[in-house]
């Protein structure tokens, strides 16, 4: 993989959500004429690979014609360690990825998946390399999530002002932003999180802006009440059982890795949230197509798109930072920037394929 001169506009920092994804990533990086590595070899080797640039891409704005050059940097964090208590090793990998972005000359780095969570949980935050800003990408993720829920509800004749919305992971960064944005628009809001004290504090903040609020640390207790569900918890595997859902319920799973699993005979309408489509597309991203394998071209996670559209806008800044600081105004602002550069809401999709194409099925998810 040849190295280009330093000076890219943005860096995207991420990780794999499963060992299947790891195998696809390693396969996409391996020379095609060489035999594939066995699963056992990959599991042995992967944890020893340091964070590094694995992809170079150019994104274009379909509206303005501007372009931006970027890199995708993988942290090579083993996916089965994501749910464990963040260790210094995890944090060092994210910091090494940030150093890699600085060496590439990136002016902005956007954090994907657990990488922003790991930094937030670190006991000490070090100074960023000079000339590099860091954004979590969570503002655009939240903005795409709430608009997806609004659109899905409209398509399925569920009036928001009469609906009960459940947010799983409501005290997290994306979950709290979605709850804050939709609280004035729904009839009742159910909040689910691990910390009861934080839940009660969130309830006290949201009830005055219009919604009746119910809280619980048990998703199973609240799921049967909901017409709409946003699953935005930090989970290392899909553990939320959807079988108690109402038959008409709509579930938006924003988790990376995914939060939800459907069991039983009745499965609600579910879709992956926080996704957008860059109409101008990107060039050079073999990993994006072979690694994520979305059933529609040009689709990316909101956290990654935030870095792209900020670079296209020429705003190399920490647009999303900290925890719980995402306001409805910030969500509307970043969504307007995204729209200006040709980002649209991704088609509704899940592990079975596109909602609009029931024949497009990926049994492997």
Overview of this structure, please?
The protein is of the alpha/beta class. The protein has two domains: 10-139 and 276-345, no CATH class; 144-274, Rossmann fold (3-Layer(aba) Sandwich). Helix content is 32%, strand content 21%. It has eleven helices and 19 strands. It has helices at residues 19-29, 39-45, 88-103, 115-121, 138-155, 173-182, 196-206, 219-222, 286-292, 302-313, 328-340; strands at residues 10-14, 52-60, 67-74, 108-111, 133-135, 164-168, 188-192, 212-216, 228-231, 240-241, 250-253, 260-261, 269-272, 275-278, 282-283, 299-301, 343-345, 349-350, 353-354. The strands form five sheets. A six-stranded mixed β-sheet has the order 5-4-1-3-2-15, sandwiched between helices. A six-stranded parallel β-sheet has the order 8-7-6-9-11-13. The protein has a three-stranded antiparallel β-sheet with strand order 16-14-17. Strand 18 and strand 19 (353-354) form a beta hairpin. The radius of gyration is 20 Å and the shape is globular.
Element-level helix/strand string: EHHEEHEHEHEHEHEHEEEEEEEHEHHEEE
User: Percent helix among the residues?
Assistant: 25-40%
- Secondary-structure-based class equals alpha/beta
Percent of residues in beta strands?
15-25%
Number of domains: 2
Using the CA coordinates, give the radius of gyration: 20 Å
């Amino acid at each position: 993989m040849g190295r280009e001169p330093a000076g890219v506009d943005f860096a995207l920092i991420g990780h794999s959500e499963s060992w299947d994804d790891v195998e696809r990533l390693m396969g996409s990086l391996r020379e095609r004429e060489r035999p594939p590595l066995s699963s056992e070899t990959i599991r042995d080797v992967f944890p020893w690979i340091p964070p590094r640039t694995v992809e170079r891409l150019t994104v274009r704005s379909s509206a303005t014609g501007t372009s931006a050059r970027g890199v995708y940097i993988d942290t090579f964090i083993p996916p089965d360690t994501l749910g464990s208590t963040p260790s210094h090793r995890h944090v060092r990998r994210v910091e090494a990825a940030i150093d890699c972005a600085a060496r590439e000359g990136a002016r902005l780095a956007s954090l994907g998946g657990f990488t922003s969570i790991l930094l937030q949980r670190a006991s000490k935050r070090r100074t960023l390399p000079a000339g590099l800003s860091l954004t979590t990408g969570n503002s655009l993720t939240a903005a795409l999530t709430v608009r997806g829920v609004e659109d899905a509800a409209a398509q399925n004749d569920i009036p928001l002002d009469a609906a009960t919305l459940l947010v799983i992971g409501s005290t997290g960064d994306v979950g709290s932003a979605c709850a804050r944005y939709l609280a004035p628009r729904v009839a009742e809001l159910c909040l689910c999180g691990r910390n009861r004290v934080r839940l009660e504090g969130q309830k006290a903040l949201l009830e005055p802006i219009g919604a009746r609020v119910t809280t619980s640390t048990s998703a199973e207790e609240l799921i049967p009440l909901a017409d709409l569900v946003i699953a935005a918890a930090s989970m290392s595997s899909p553990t939320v059982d959807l079988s108690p859902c109402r038959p008409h319920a709509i579930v938006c799973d924003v988790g990376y890795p995914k939060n939800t699993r459907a069991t039983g005979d009745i499965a609600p309408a579910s879709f992956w949230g926080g996704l957008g489509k860059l109409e101008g597309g990107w060039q050079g991203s073999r990993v994006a197509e072979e690694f994520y394998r979305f059933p529609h071209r040009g689709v990316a996670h909101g956290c990654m798109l935030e870095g792209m559209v900020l670079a296209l806008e020429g705003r190399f800044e920490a647009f999303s930072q900290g925890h719980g600081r995402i306001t409805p105004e910030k969500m509307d602002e970043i969504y307007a920037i995204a729209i200006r550069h040709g980002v649209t809401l991704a088609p509704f999709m899940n592990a079975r394929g596109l909602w609009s194409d029931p024949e497009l099925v990926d049994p492997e998810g």
